[in-house]
Amino acid sequence: MCGIVGYIGKREAYPILIKGLKRLEYRGYDSAGVALINHADGLNVYKTKGKVSNLEDYCCEKDITGSVGIAHTRWATHGEPSSLNAHPHYSTSHNLAIIHNGIIENYADLKANLISKGVTFRSDTDTEVLVQLVEYIKNKKNVDLLTATQLALGEVIGAYAIAILDKKDPTQIIAARKQSPLVVGIGEDEFFLGSDASPIVEYTDKVVYLEDGNIAVIKLGHELEVFDIANVRLNPEIKTVDLNLGQIEKDGYAHFMLKEIFEQPKCLKNCMSGRVNVEANRVVLSAVIDYKERLMNAQRVIIVACGTSWHAGLIGKQIIENLCRIPVEVEYASEFRYRNPVVSEKDVVIAISQSGETADTLAAVELAKSKGAFIYGICNAIGSSIPRATHTGSYIHVGPEIGVASTKAFTGQVTVLTMLALALGKEKGVVDEKEYHDIVTELSLIPKKMEEVLKLNDRIATLSKVFTYARNFLYLGRGFSYPVALEGALKLKEISYIHAEGYPAAEMKHGPIALIDSDMPVVVIATHNTMYEKVLSNIQEIKARKGKVIALVSEGDETISNIADEVLEMPNTLECLEPLIATIPLQLLAYHVAVCKGKNVDQPRNLAKSVTVE
C-alpha cells in the first residue's frame, strides 16, 4: 500500500515521477501528490484526492519544472482521503517536503510536544508530524538534514519509508526505511527511488534495496551513501534487478488481472524450471538440500500467512501432512503475532507472502525467530524483506503481479508448497514411491492442463452476465478443494464487492443452508475424487431448496451435469493437484462478474497490493 517515487538528475523530474506513480497504482491508494524543486530554487507541492490522472489534470497549468522531485500515492491511515492529507507534506517554513509509507505509532505524543513548542499543523496525518519534527530539530540544533533526520527517526516508534527534499539544498534527497520497502536505482549521473523496482526498471537495472534502519543520502554528482541512525557509514550491495517492461505492461489484455490469469501456465513452468525433473523422477529444492537435517528433524510445521497466501497454506498443510507425515498448523500471521504462541527450536515456520513485505507476516517471522524456530520463506518479490529475514526459502518465480487480487501468485505458492512436500517427503523416506512418481509426472503436466481450462474463458464471460446482480454467493468444496472455495469467494468479494462465503461442503447443513433459495448462486467444486458422492449429495440438497448451482466437474462427468444449472468441465488430475486447475475458473468468474458490474478490476476499492501496515 502507498507508493514512493523519487528522481534526481539532469532530466525533468515530473514526467518520470508521474510515470512511476502509474507503475505503482497496483499497490492501492486514494490520493496522489508530487514535490518538485524548480530551477528558480523553489519547492512546489501539488496533490489531489483520487487517481494519478486527477493529479495530472491538476498540474496542467502549474510550474512542474525541476530535475529533483518526489511523488507519492497514499492509502489513508490517519485522516480521511483528501488533498489536505495527501502527501507530500510541507514543513512549517515550506523549506522541507516529505513523503512517507507506514505508520508512526507515537505520532500523537510527538505532535503534542511540537504543538507545545509553537508548531502548527495543517493535516490530520502522522506523516506531517515527522517532517515538522525534522525541521524543528534541524533549526533547534543547527544541524544538516541528514543529522536532523537521524535524530528525528531516533524518536519515532513505528514503520516508515520516507523521502525528504530541502529547497535550500536542491542537489540531494534523504531517504530512509524501517519495515517498509524502499529501493534506490543507480543510473548515469542520476538516481531513482521506488517502493519497488517497477518505477525504476525503465531507466536502470542497478538497484540498492535499503535495509531496516538505513538512511540514504542521494546526492547529485556523488556516489550513493548509506548510514544508520547512529551515523555509521554502511556498504550497501548493488544488485541487478531481474525485471523487464513487458512484465509490467498489459500486453493487449483489458486488465492486468486477466493477463495474469492467462500467464499461469507459463508462470508455473518457470516456477518448476530446474526443480522438477520428470526423467530423473526427482524434485530438487536447494533449500531442502542445504538444510536437509534441520527440515527432516522438524517435529511440527507452522505456516503463517494472510489472505490468499493463507489459503495456499491450507492446501500446503494437507499435502505436507500427506507426503511428509509431519503435523502442520496454518495461522493467520496477524493473530499469531499477538497470541503468545507456543513455538520452539524444534519447529519449522513457513512464511508465505507474495510481496515479501506483508507487515503481519514479517512480524510473525521475527517472533518465531526469537523463539528459536527455523524459518522458511515462500515469496515472489526477490530481495524483499521476508526473504532477507528468513533462514532459507524458495521464490515462486511467477513474475511481478500487478493486479491487486492475487491470481498467479496463489498457484505459484501452491506449486512451491507441493514441491517442498515432495522433496522433503522423499528425503525422509516416508512417501510411497509410486505416489511420488505419479505426483511428479502429473505436476509437470499441470501447465498444459491449465491451458485447457483457460479455454473456458468465453463461456465463463457469458455465464457471468447471468449472475452479475446476485447479492450473495456460496462456494463449497471438500478436502483439497475447500481452500479453493475460500479463495474463489475471496476473489469475488475483492473485485466485484458481492458478498461471498466459502465453506467445507459438509458444513453447509450446519448453518449456511438456511441462506439457500432461488436467488442464491452456489459454486460447488465437484471433481471426481474420493468425496465425489458426498459432494453430489450436497448438490442435491441445494437443488431441493431451489438454489442455483454452478458446478466445477471432471471431464466427462454426466451425473452432476444433469443436476446443476451450469457445469464447467476441467481436465482430470490427481486430487492433491486439483487446486491448481480448479482455481482458474473461479478467478475468471470473479473477473467477468466484476467487469459486468463496471468495477475497477485491477484496483478494487479500499484494497492495497502490498499491506505494509497492520
Helix fraction, binned, reads 25-40%
**Computed structural class:** alpha/beta
Please list the strands of the largest sheet in the order they lie side by side. 3-2-4-1-10-9-11-15
What distance separates the N and C termini? 11 Å
Strand content: 15-25%
The global form is globular
Q: pLDDT below 50 for ≥5 consecutive residues: which ranges?
A: none
The radius of gyration over CA amounts to: 26 Å
Instruction: Please tally the β strands and state the result.
Output: 27
Look at the structure and give the mean pLDDT. Answer: 91
Largest sheet: 8 strands, antiparallel
Number of helices: 19
Describe the structure.
This protein is α/β, with parallel strands linked by helices and 614 residues long. It contains 19 helices and 27 strands. β20 (347-353), α12 (359-370) and β21 (374-379) form a beta-alpha-beta unit. The longest helix has 22 residues, at 433-454. The model has no long low-confidence stretch (mean pLDDT 91).
Produce the secondary structure layout:
Blueprint: E1 3-8, H1 13-23, E2 31-37, E3 43-49, H2 52-58, E4 68-74, E5 89-90, E6 96-104, H3 107-116, H4 126-141, H5 145-154, E7 158-166, E8 172-178, E9 183-186, E10 191-194, E11 206-209, E12 215-219, E13 225-227, E14 233-234, E15 239-240, H6 256-262, H7 264-272, E16 276-277, E17 282-283, H8 286-290, H9 292-296, E18 300-305, H10 307-324, E19 328-332, H11 333-336, E20 347-353, H12 359-370, E21 374-379, H13 385-389, E22 392-395, H14 408-428, H15 433-454, H16 457-466, E23 472-477, H17 481-496, E24 499-504, E25 521-525, H18 532-544, E26 548-554, E27 566-570, H19 578-596
Parallel strand pairs: 18-19, 18-20, 20-21, 21-22, 23-24, 23-25, 25-26, 26-27
Antiparallel strand pairs: 1-4, 1-10, 2-3, 2-4, 5-6, 6-7, 7-8, 8-12, 9-10, 9-11, 11-15, 12-13, 13-14, 16-17
